Amino acid sequence: DAKTTQPTSMDCAEGRAANLPCNHSTISGNEYVYWYRQIHSQGPQYIIHGLKNNETNEMASLIITEDRKSSTLILPHATLRDTAVYYCIVLMNRDDKIIFGKGTRLHILP
Amino acid sequence: DTAVSQTPKYLVTQMGNDKSIKCEQNLGHDTMYWYKQDSKKFLKIMFSYNNKELIINETVPNRFSPKSPDKAHLNLHINSLELGDSAVYFCASSQAGYQETQYFGPGTRLLVL
Questions:
Q1: Residue B31 near residue B93 (C-beta atoms within 8 A)
Q2: Option in B45, B96, B107 nearest A98 (CB)
Q3: Looking at beta carbons, which residues of chain A come within 8 Å of B90?
Q4: DSSP string spanning chain A?
Q5: pLDDT tens profile B13-24
Q6: What digits encode the pLDDT tens for the residues A41-95?
Q7: Is the peptide bond before B8 cis (omega within 30 degrees of 0)?
Q8: Taking CB atoms and an 8 Å limit, are B102 and A98 in contact across chains?
Q9: What is the pLDDT of residue A97?
Q10: Are B42 and A102 in contact (CB < 8 Å)?
Q11: CB contact under 8 A, A99 and B45
Q12: C-alpha B22: how far from its chain's center?
């Protein structure tokens, strides 16, 4: 049901940048790309979202391709606390439903 | 000063019982949600309330009944619990609709025996 495709898992060395890809080839012009993460035994946590421009906040950067069919979440300096499942979600409009897919399980290696 | 809180955190009960999970948000948000995360970790929307009114009701058995006494609270009551109801239930809230950032509670782990 999810409109996005993500790798099942990824590893990243502590201190390095973690780049998490997401494909959303059927995205339409008014759909936003959202990223959430879920650390073990906790509720999902919002990270960042964007429409077509690249975005950056204190947690991460979001790079959206010009055709908007894919995006990359970048955690610039990954720490062990960034180990989590990362969900990429597209939302069409105000009344659309969030559908969380399987996400990417990111392992940060010491 | 937890933004979205749920009680209880853990709930173990027998089949056929009726139980409730409470959710409160102190963010002043207008919209609240209930999600179910199953054993395969899929997170699915169950209900959404905006200003105490139901706006989304997914294909959920009618044994599940949400109740919103005010816009800061959205409780989930489950009748005649079944084994398949075992899951983690998350409450969330947002300022308005889905395009707003959602803030999730810590989850309630329900185990039906």
A1: yes
A2: B45
A3: 43-44
A4: --S-B--SEEEEETTSPEEEEEE-TT--TT-EEEEEEE-TTS--EEEEEESSS-EE-SS-EEEE-TTSSEEEEEETT--GGG-EEEEEEEE-STT---B----EEEEEE-
A5: 999 999 999 999
A6: 788 888 998 998 899 999 999 999 999 999 999 999 999 999 999 999 887 654 5
A7: yes
A8: yes
A9: 62
A10: yes
A11: yes
A12: 8
Phi–psi pair at A25, nearest 5 degrees: -65, -20
Q: What is the pLDDT of residues B62-92, one digit of tens each?
A: 899 999 999 899 999 999 999 999 999 999 9
Which residues is B22 bridged to in the sheet?
A: B7
Taking CA–CA distances from B6, the nearest residue in chain A reads A43
Per residue in B8-53, pLDDT (tens digit) is 999 999 999 999 999 999 999 988 999 998 877 777 888 888 887 7
